[in-house]
proline dehydrogenase
Amino acid sequence: MLGPVILAASRSDQMRRFVSAAPGTKQVVDRFIAGETVDQVVPIVRDAAAKGLEVTLDVVGEDITTPEQAYAARDAYLELIDRLKALELGERAEMSVKLSMFGQALEGGHELALANVRPVVEAAAAIGTTVTLDAEDHTTLDSMFAIHEELRKDFPGTGCVIQAYLYRTEDDARRLAADGSRVRIVKGAYKEPASVAIQDKAEIDKAYVRILKILLAGEGYPMIGSHDPRLIAITQELARRAGRKPDEYEFQMLYGIRSEEHLRLAAEGHRMRVYTAYGTDWYGYFMRRLAEKPANLLFFVRSMITKN
């Protein structure tokens, strides 16, 4: 029951100010956010590569209100790509982008987001890596999928994300699996109404497995975004039945969560990618991490008590 409350708080400016000022916040934010600058995140990419892991990098920030902020978000990703190129880390790191950062919600936002994300995708391709378009709330998805389809005309490795809790997702998965694209499946971390999204956790898990079967039986490249041991085991069995080789799908988990499991899967020969967020505008991302798992919230509360 706490999840929806926390997600609602993620849109509250008053809660943003309170959480940002709380004594224990930095300790917990540092667990989920790799740093604020490119200089801070590059050593993490290096370390992951040395351990046999790959990463996908997310420059956090979603509350874009002007075109100038959208241009700045574009430039932040271009700076990241330049650094990865100089350090020859492009093949170990891809990018994840939220189109809201590129101006999707502004007037003329669909065209603005496409114009801003295209040079990022082009620059990523030039250093041998890819970009995945993150899914946001359900009102943005038709635009996201249209931009995904447009980008894939020139950059077929461009990926996208689908969310198991949405009723529409099984149909989206069938279309994307047949299309041969790169697809990350996650449970979903936005507050959605019952008219568009499954509310019961057990039913979401069942939907996740149904969608997994579609993706693994298709022609695309599935990226399994989950920390759930049961879903990971189910994925391994379904991949075996589908005749998938270890390099024909991958697991993805969040930076700071189940780090030992990252290493275990990589040691077993699986492709394991760590979703690594960084930047100064961390609040929305941080609150969704708290909402996803009660243990994260307890960790936050304990840290506040300890600091006091």
Notes: Residues 67-86 form the longest helix (20 residues). Residues 54 and 280 are 23 Å apart (CA to CA).
